Sequence to fold (316 residues):
Amino acid sequence: MWNLDFILNPPAGLTIPTILALGFILGIMHGATPDEHTWPITFSYSVGSYSSRGGMKAGFVFSSGFTLQRSILTALGFLGLAAVYEVYNLDGPVYIIVGFVMFLAGWYLLRGSDIHLPLDHWLERLLHPFFRDHSHHSTVAERQPVAEGELRPVPLRMAILHGFVAGWGFGGFAVIIVFILAPQMPNVWWAALVGTCFGLGTMVMQIATGAFFARLARLKKLTMAQIQRIGRSTAARTLYLGGLAFVVVGAVVAAAPWLSSVALSTGNPIPNLNSIGYATVLIVVVVGIIGGTSIWKAYREVSARPPPAGATVPKP
Fold:
């Protein structure tokens, strides 16, 4: 009974425990498969945390916002309001909003550092009046000044906003929980629990994924300060340039929504693995090209600067 076809195509008349269990399993599958709404963002914040524990925290924080959104979405699915997704393709607007938030987060990390990217100076002039009281301070509670050339800590609180916004993107997994599972629940509160279970399943995998991504920053024979700089520099560049990529793709998809149907089938029935389309290209660009190149550039930068005497090299 509990085979792949049953999970991906659940029938009507299921019990409440079965529906909630299916929601959790679908969430695990969603978190484990490459998804443009999760992996690029989790990668950015996890690498910026420079430790497995920090990466797990990044995955948890992001998924918390995502879980809240999915709970609201499945409640709306029970009420019938989510039918708007059958008429309108909201992927384009969601991409634009997510990309803009990523872009601002990356720009914030770069302020006061020695890293300069396209549009950086223009954004500094535009937004400086809103940040001038915090121009060269970190986000820690002590508000210690940030040294010249140093990158600010990655603001994980923004990952909650990212998770909430990114959740409005609509894919194959969302179709199952919103249009098939949520309407079978006895009331709107039980329907919201479907989204909660889905979000918790995603959270489990995002915590594991975050820990994995964070390990990428722990290169051998580097001091803690060098690892921190690689992680934060990579996060800043990935959020900044990846955000621009999201905005561009979002604008194209919003102008030409028919692109959603243009994809190369892989023959795999699992959503996110069943086809190669613009979402797959976005993952490769943000995580593979931008993220990979950023790690390489940051590694070269810190390697060119010998560590100070007595610097601690953490154990892998």
In short: DSSP finds twelve helices and two strands in the chain. Residues 6 and 223 are 50 Å apart (CA to CA).
